[in-house]
Design brief:
Layout lengths: L2 H6 L1 H14 L3 H7 L2 H4 L2 H18 L9 E2 L4 H8 L5 H21 L2 E7 L3 H10 L4 E8 L2 E7 H13 L4 E4 L12 H12 L10 E2 L6 E2 L2 H11 L6 H10 L4 E4 L5 H9 L4 E4 L3
Parallel strand pairs: 1-6, 8-9
Antiparallel strand pairs: 2-4, 2-5, 3-4, 6-7
Length: 278
């Protein structure tokens, strides 16, 4: 993961080595030589994705001049760093703290997530509200794809009722916890003080934040939205719709994979999407 980026540029190499020092372990060894299981460790996954995205954005230089940016869940920290609201060091430290806080919260609470396909958001929301226990919409990924999150029994009950209501799939996901739900409150509390004490500057362009799906440039609002993000849903469907409505003519995905491009295509099949290339 990102080895080619490391080898292509002295500046990129320096940033990866700085990341090793900040994290206190050689994440590059795991990214370049580790197994899939090694990369799936929470303490590794989140910083690794952040580093790939942010360092690639930095290496693009003058080619990286977006009119607006957004990131899905963890990606919001990458977007804020790439847009200059967070420094590289501050962004990485927050991501590492976020990963550790989320891991700790998953050990304290037994929760899970499930993908619900081919139902309107309003139907999924109503079934979650009507299900006994904690289960909430967590990721509005695209029209017809909503991930729910919460207590094990409540998520299973909601899946059963949503299947009966006509969902094409209501599938429990292989995740370690109930992310973006009230069960992440311990993680939100852990991360809140770190976010509050971190300097956040006015970004170079509006950042569409997960909590509101609205463009934000005010540092105080950015902070409060980041704190709320761990227990609030990722409003990615609404984010994509708002970016397009506000004039986005094309999107470039900066980082590993092409998942977000695919989600934009679900909003508008003819929309211009691409991956960042040096």
């Amino acid at each position: 993961m990102a080895k080619e980026l490391y080898e292509q540029s002295a500046e990129a190499k320096a940033l990866f080595e700085q990341a090793n020092d900040i994290l206190g372990f050689r994440i590059t060894d795991i990214m370049f030589n580790g197994t899939q299981d090694d990369l799936k460790e929470t303490r590794v996954t989140q910083p690794a994705i952040f580093l790939h995205s942010v360092i690639l954005a930095k290496m693009l230089g003058d080619k990286f001049q977006p009119d607006m940016v957004a990131g899905h869940s963890l990606g919001e920290f990458s977007a804020l760093t790439a847009a200059g609201a967070l420094s590289f060091e501050a962004g990485l430290k927050l991501v590492a703290q976020r990963a550790n806080a989320m891991q700790k919260a998953t050990e304290q609470t037994k929760g899970t997530m499930a993908a619900i396909l081919a139902l309107d958001d309003e139907v999924v929301e109503k079934h979650c509200a009507d299900t006994e226990g904690i289960v909430v919409p967590a990721n509005y990924n695209c029209p017809g794809q909503l991930v729910i999150s919460g207590e094990l029994d409540a998520v299973q009950k909601a899946c059963d009722s949503l299947s009966a209501a006509g969902a094409r799939r209501a599938m429990i996901l292989p995740v370690g916890g109930a992310f973006h739900s009230p069960l992440m409150e311990p993680a939100r509390a852990d991360l809140a003080s770190a976010i509050e004490s971190t300097e956040i500057k006015v970004p170079s362009c509006p950042v569409y934040q997960n909590v509101s799906a609205e463009p934000v440039t005010d540092p105080a609002t950015i902070k409060s939205n980041l704190v709320a993000q761990l227990t609030a849903p990722v409003r990615w469907t609404q984010t994509m719709q708002n970016m397009i409505a506000n004039g986005a003519a094309a999107v470039v995905e900066v980082g590993p994979g092409k998942v977000l491009q695919g989600l934009f295509k679900k909003v508008d099949r003819g929309f211009d999407t691409s991956s960042a290339e040096l």
